[in-house]
Amino acid sequence: MLALWVVRLLFLVVIYGFLFAVVRVLLRDLRAASKGPAELGRLVVLASPRGEPQPGGSYPLDAVTTLGRDVNNGIVLDDPFASAEHAVLTYRGRSWYVEDLASTNGTYVNGVPVEGVGPLGFGDEVQVGEIRFRLDRGRA
Predict the structure, then answer these.
(1) Which residues face 59 on adjacent strands?
(2) Quick one: three-class SS letters along 71-90?
(3) Residues whose CB is less than 8 angstroms from the CB of residue 55 and which lie 6 or more positions away in sequence, other chains included
(4) How far apart are CA 22 and CA 26, in angstroms?
(5) Coil vs helix vs strand at 8
(6) Do the beta carbons of residue 135 and residue 121 sit within 8 Å?
(7) Are residues 126 and 43 in contact, defined by beta-carbon separation less than 8 angstroms?
(8) What are 80-131's pLDDT values in tens digits?
(9) 135, 124 contact by CB (below 8 A)
């Protein structure tokens, strides 16, 4: 009779231990989800001769971010030397790439014109029209 009670108590301890572990994992996942997604990267404005966007300002980047004058772009640029759909930045695997979308004045990385799709590293400078950006790591 005593052995039966011990088995019942052990069974209850195991069940409560399992439930405690499940609740702990769920709470950890909820905390991680509430922090929001980490940025993949961001563009920091280095120079803007017309003053817009403000130098020092930054734009968070999605996995695919378009740049240009058109309002449908991820980053809208008020620059007469930027095309409506000027360039696109894409994050593939663990690397950034930039592609010029047949713009009139071209896209430059570290002063070199981009032809087709070109790799982009953190710290590289991207020029679209007269506006220069630097690719930085995203904020966690």
Answers:
(1) 43
(2) CCCCEECCCCCCCCCCEEEE
(3) 45, 46, 47, 48
(4) 6
(5) helix
(6) yes
(7) yes
(8) 999 999 999 999 988 999 999 999 999 999 999 999 899 999 999 999 999 9
(9) yes
